[in-house]
Amino acid sequence: MQHFISDLHLCPEQAETAQAFQAYLRGPAADASDLWILGDLFEYWTGDDDLSSPFHAEMTAAIAALAGTGTQVHVLVGNRDFLLGQTFAGAAAAELVAEPVCIKLMGEMTVLMHGDALCTDDVAYQQFRALVRNPAWQAQFLAQPQAVRHKIAADLRAKSEMGKQEKADDIMDVNAAAVAAAFDAHAASRMIHGHTHRPARHTLTVSGLPRERWVLADWHGRANWLQVDRSGWALRSL
Ligand code: LP5
Ligand code: MN
Fold first, then answer.
1. What is the pTM of this model?
2. Is the CB of 119 under 6 A from ligand 1?
3. Residue 225: what pLDDT?
4. Can you state the angle between helices 123-132 and 135-142, rounded to 10 degrees?
5. How many angstroms separate the CA atoms of 35 and 143, rounded?
């Protein structure tokens, strides 16, 4: 069985979500051969020295404990935690993989992504994304003291929350042409992503072929995952 989760937005201020994550790791996730974390595991991550925070270290160790029992953990980054690096991956005993990832899932070619790259109508966000995903920009950012990085991240979070109130709802959803292009680029019949917090199973036709797009739920105090095995695909919660 394979599990897919995203958008936990773990932070010390959301204790219920952190508890839900630990219960999920000790419970349902242990039945999975693979756990795929599709981005925004953390509320924000300003560099792997964020492991110096007891909260972040504890969450990371909880992932490593699951991996220790035999579940393979794969992490894709999101728009909040794109600075997760190899030090984190080592501490979590997880594999850090760059999106898009293509896997064969129950015989179906399936493309995995966080989902933000599909939101091409959000032009301001895509410009911001291009900037902060630039390796030179990241190196410069990571060279700042941790306290400065935390301040910048907190400012950006506030700006983002304010900005979203002014953005139309459909601008913050995926763009149909971007979705179609991603299906075709990878010859995939299935897609799994998060980011939009609009959990659903969408059926559609792209280039004359039937496709399915599964959107994961965010957490907010409760564990939500997609599980896939021979008995089928199902969105579950705890
Ligand atoms: O995250 P969420 O759900 O609120 O909204 C996202 C998009 N916002 C973001 C920004 C993050 O929330 C900010 C936190 C990142 C922490 C990373 C820390 C380490 C790196 C610091 C990097 C500087 O991703 C939001 C989308 C929304 O999803 C829906 O898809 O609309 O997009 C924005 O808010 C982007 C704005 O529209 C444009 C922001 C311009 C700011 C320009 C500052 C340039 C950077 C300078 C940094 C020193
Ligand atoms: Mn996101």
1. 0.97
2. yes
3. 98
4. 70
5. 32
Find the ligand nearest to 117 CA: 1
3-class secondary-structure state, position 56: helix
Which of 215, 172, 223 has its CA nearest to residue 192? 215
Q: Ligand 1 pocket, 42 CB below 6 A? A: no
pLDDT digits (tens, 9 = 90+) for 122-158: 999 999 999 999 999 999 999 999 999 999 999 999 9
82 alpha carbon – ligand 2 mean position (Å): 10
Each residue of 78-125: pLDDT tens digit? 999 999 999 999 999 999 999 999 999 999 999 999 999 999 999 999
Q: Is the CB of 157 under 6 A from ligand 1?
A: yes
Tell me if 9 CB under 6 Å of ligand 1: no
Rg, Å, the chain Cα set: 17
Nearest to 2 by CA among 71, 99, 80: 71
- Give the pairing of strands 209-215 and 190-193: parallel
Q: Do the Cβ atoms of 17 and 10 come closer than 8 Å?
A: yes
Q: How far is the CA of 195 from the centre of ligand 1 (A)?
A: 13
CB-based contact 80:50 (threshold 8 Å): no
